[in-house]
Every structure is written in C-alpha cells, then in structure tokens.
Write the structure tokens for this entry.
Amino acid sequence: MGLFSRSGSEDSTATEPAATVVKTDDEWRAQLNPAEYQVLRKAGTERPFTGEYTDTTTTGVYRCRACNAELFRSDSKFESHCGWPSFFTPLAGESVIERVDSSMGMRRVEVLCATCHSHLGHVFEGEGYGTPTDLRYCINSVSLALEPETS
C-alpha cells in the first residue's frame, strides 16, 4: 500500500501506480448512476447509516462497483457504529491505494481502488477498535458490490 498526496507524494520517490481500467468522464457517467458517479469519480460521501452494506453480515467478497476489482472480504468487516461499512484490512496490499487528503482542512487518508482509481472512502488508525490492525477502512456502500459466497 502506498501513501500519496494529491499535490505530490509525501515521499518524493513514491509514484502512484497507473490505473489499469481507464475510461473517459463520459464513459463513467454512462456506466454509473448519479450517486455512484458522485462518490466513485468525484470523491463524494454518502450520508451515514444510509448505505446498503452498513449492517450487512453476508459472507463474501466486496468488489469495486466501478471496475469489479476485489477489494475486501467479509471476514475483515467489523461493526464500528460509524455509519459506513468498516474493514480492518483490504483484500490484498495492492488492491487499494492510500493517499493524503487535506480537502476538509484536516489530514485524512483517502482510499482508492488500485485498478480504476475510484474513490472508496478513507482509512483511520489508532481509534482503539479491537481489530488485528487498529485500522478502520471507512468505505462508502455505493462504491462496493458484494459478491456473496456460494456454498
């Protein structure tokens, strides 16, 4: 996982990996509904406690709604009571990109899909949740598609 800033990386040797799924803005608008487009392509945030996966306990894989890349597994999802689905780790280190986001007048770390660079949410650390990583990937439901496990 890399940590990157929109106005340049914190580590001058770091480079953000290129997206492997690249579309024009018109193509994204045609593929995504307005809410998905606002969150995934414009770094919006859905209202808390309104997303379809906030309280979901279904076993499966959470994929990027824009490009279908695997991002998180249900076994890393936990109840944080924050209003959005929370995970303590992504599926694999290279499935997401983390970069500094100072857009709200504070330092946060934005989480993007590594495959298409769509905005997913933010990651927070040191909040004291009883998880193995002490991280909370706070992800918008609208940026995810759950693929339930088949038995």
About this structure: Residues 3-7+17-148 form a domain with the Metal Binding Protein, Guanine Nucleotide Exchange Factor; Chain A fold (CATH 2.170.150.20). Residues 32 and 67 are 11 Å apart (CA to CA).
